[in-house]
Design a protein that fits this description.
The chain is of the alpha+beta class. It contains 8 helices and 8 strands, in the order αβαβββαβααββαααβ. It folds into 2 domains: 90 residues, Arc Repressor Mutant, subunit A; 125 residues, Orthogonal Bundle (Arc Repressor Mutant, subunit A).
């Protein structure tokens, strides 16, 4: 009589671990500092994860140094490539002028911060962010309205996953809001994009406020 024996090979993790990783990545970004156990599992199973998501026309982006991983759509085949064009599972998001501008400014700030060789976490107050953006927006007599508009943009960037609002040690009323710039921003606003920063800002300032810039939004879509 044959018996099914349990898997005692430590080099072969349970299939459940792979399923949990796939579901986690399909839902959004996996950060090392948020779930070290799952991050370790991903490092161990990344080859199988890559094979599994490839059938969905996705690829795994994993940055061990920065501690994040997410899924993005594979490049579309060229016009002379006979490969079938598969539907996109990860959608592209149209970004408003204000959101595009803030992402560019945060990316430049992160580059300057990294060049300083200090802490690895860039934390900014709402006041810091207002000062970053203010010089690129039309001047207006209503200061409170300007701050409200920038805070609305900040909240949209939080929703996109590029900023994380930090909890105050003494409660919500203990001090001004502070935000950590998530390092995954480097994967979306790349070095080439940053190199063209000044010319892009000139183009942004010449566009009407309703103009958009379409960029792909990782696993958050």
């Amino acid at each position: 009589m044959e018996e099914e024996l349990p898997n005692t090979n430590p080099a072969a993790p349970p299939a459940a671990d792979l399923s949990v990783l796939l579901i986690t990545l399909l839902k959004g970004v996996l950060y090392r500092d948020a779930d070290e156990r799952r991050w370790a599992a991903l490092l161990n199973l990344q080859a199988r994860v890559r094979d599994s998501v490839a059938v969905l026309n996705l690829e795994l982006v994993l940055d061990e140094a920065e501690g994040y991983a997410f899924l993005k759509s594979r490049p579309e085949p060229s016009d002379d490539d006979p490969s079938p064009r598969l539907p996109r599972l990860v959608a592209r998001r149209p970004l408003s002028f204000a959101v595009s501008l803030l992402l560019a400014l945060l990316r430049r700030k992160l580059a300057e911060f990294d060049a300083g060789g200090g802490d690895t976490r860039l934390v900014l107050s709402l006041e810091d962010i207002v000062e970053l953006v203010r010089v690129f927006l039309p001047e207006g007599p209503n200061e409170a309205r300007l701050i409200d508009q920038i805070e609305t943009t900040v909240n949209k960037v939080v929703d996109l996953g590029f900023l994380q609002k930090l909890k105050s040690a003494g409660g919500a009323a203990a001090g001004p809001a502070t935000y950590e710039v998530r390092r995954i921003l480097k994967a979306f606003v790349d070095a080439q994009w940053l190199a063209d920063f000044d010319s892009r800002l000139v183009a942004y300032q010449s566009q009407p406020a309703g103009a958009t810039d379409t960029r792909e939004g990782g696993g958050n879509d």
